[in-house]
Amino acid sequence: xxxxxxxxxxSNPHLYxxxxxxxxxxxxxxxxxxxxxxxxxxxTVLADLFHDNLLCLQVFNFCLESARELLxxxxxxxxxxxxxxxxxxxxxxxxAEMLQLLPTFVSVQTHAELFHAILDLPCLSIALELRxxxxxxxxxxxxxxxxxxxxxxxxxxxxxxxxxxxxxxxxLEKFTDSVRVSECAQIVPLLLNNHCSIVWDSADYTAVxxxxxxxxxxxxxxxxxxxxxxxxxxxxxxxxLLYLERYPQLIVDAHKEIIEFVGNTxxxxxxxxxxxxxxxxxxxxxxxSKRDARCDAExxxxxxxxxxxxxxxLNRELGSQTIDAAFQGINYARTICSLSVSLAKLTTNSQVMxxxxxLLLSKMAKQxxxxxxxxxxxxxxxxxxxxxxxNTLKQSSIAATVLTSVDAKQGAAQPALHADPSSALELARxxxxxxxx
Length: 437
What we know:
- There is one protein chain.
- The chain is an all-alpha fold.
- Helix content is 70%, strand content 0%.
- The chain is built from 23 helices and no strands.
- Helix 20 (354-370) runs antiparallel to helix 21.
- The radius of gyration is 27 Å and the shape is elongated.
């Protein structure tokens, strides 16, 4: 066995893989230390022969067949960057195999780095093309470029990502016209959704919190391929909603990052809108001391002040004759109604805010009734929702019933009137009776 391993390696990688397979299944009999062979094959051979599709197919089949045995080693958690190279070079060929194998790469130590590596898969595809064509030498004179390429082409996991992603994206953005890069960008949402779901379903809340913060951060730091950016942000928006539904305590533990994201009006439009509105909805839905005792009056006030400031900024901009370019492209009716509803929900959890919210809603109703900046249907949709909320908040007991989704006695999530389609008629009757009174 030793002689065969010594003769194989790069000269005959297919034989080398067969020898590894033999030792993995019969190691107890031959009494051979397989670790150096793992390091040589998965760490060096694959890094050089990622473009050999036949070898890569054999590697994926071997790993899928031997997953149980290999999970007892560090092959998956150490050498996953080389598996990603095989996928980045032939994305359509090995996407299905990668999706099956992906759970084996995810661990407490690797989940964050793997998340970043999946998002930067198009960058890896470009870097591999530059290496194969010899054009990577063009960056040899620039120390920063060399470091960035070495990072994206690394053979082993390093535990996290680098803080120069924007420089890496700038370095490679002029090479995006490749068909391989385009295909690679198309499979990223599939891998990303799978990876986030694996972590979401884990019992490790520390990993969940860490990945949640990375999702917020990376939504603003993606490689500039328009369709890729839009698809990835849609996945991130849906995953963030699922994370908050499963772990409502994220509203407390990640409050600084959530407030920073929601307070930035640049996140309202374009492909970030879905993610922004999900966060706004979750603030109103899960920011409550009934769900988490740590969500005290001070934290509720911080969320309240953030949503209120954003609404005032939007109202001020829409009250002017011309709308600033930074506010164009926003779905005003959907955004303003979502912010208003979440603000009203927060008010049911802290009556200190009631007067301020009621005053704000009254001003908004008047402004959008008289304003001509927005189309009539948009203005009327805003006015209708604002009036519903204002009239509902007049009666605190009714507002608590209509807007909250938490049973104060049981402390568990219960179907609320605002979330129950079958209660629409009853809700309308309640609001009309308040108006009449």
